Amino acid sequence: MEANQRIARLSAHLHPSNPQMEREHAILRRDGCRAKGGAPGFKVAILGAAGGIGQPLAMLMKMNPLVSVLHLYDVVNSPGVTADISHMDTGAVAEVLGLDPREVDVPVVGGHAGVTILPLLSQAKAGTGSATLSMVTELPFFASKVKLGRGGAEEVYQLGPLNEYERVGLEKAKKELEASIQKGVSFIRK
What we know:
Strand content: 15-25%
Radius of gyration: 21 Å
Order of helices and strands: HHEHEHHEEEEEEH
Distance between the termini: 29 Å
GO molecular function, one term: L-malate dehydrogenase (NAD+) activity
Largest sheet: 2 strands, parallel
Domain Lactate/malate dehydrogenase C-terminal: 138-187
CATH topology of the largest domain: L-2-Hydroxyisocaproate Dehydrogenase, Chain A, domain 2
Pfam families: Ldh_1_C, Ldh_1_N
Helix content: 25-40%
CATH class of the largest domain: Alpha Beta
CATH superfamily of the largest domain: Lactate dehydrogenase/glycoside hydrolase, family 4, C-terminal
GO biological process, one term: tricarboxylic acid cycle
InterPro entries: Lactate/malate_DH_C, Lactate/malate_DH_N, Lactate_DH/Glyco_Ohase_4_C, NAD(P)-bd_dom_sf
Strand order of the largest sheet: 1-2
Number of domains: 2
Shape: globular
């Protein structure tokens, strides 16, 4: 289904069909844009969340401090997008440590699925901390903290000290990532 058709299908129920609904929709638009329950931010709905633009947009909106409620809609299921953003930027670690969630930084490195996702909980701390420039692993593809600038990634931050659990997790992640990278490279070369 073409993107414009998906958007039209998703938004069809938003178009009021009579003047009574027009008045109700105006009230909803005015009063319903702020999140309820004391949440300070806005409610945002992403139509076409499973599409090429919807996925990164959902991730950006999830990290936006002005957005407190995020809804994902698409004509196809979007469980992958939902799973991706469900673990992002939550207050779980801050709650356990008794800190303000806006001040806690937990690096997550590795890949994007299963054992390749490695949260570095031993490095959970208030503030952003400091890091130095270095290669993280010998793998050509490995998600890590970076400093972004006008030209893209300016610095790749080292992993820092790891506890035993994280060292074991890193080895598992590297093994899985290496196999996935080889599979991807082989596929492209065919």
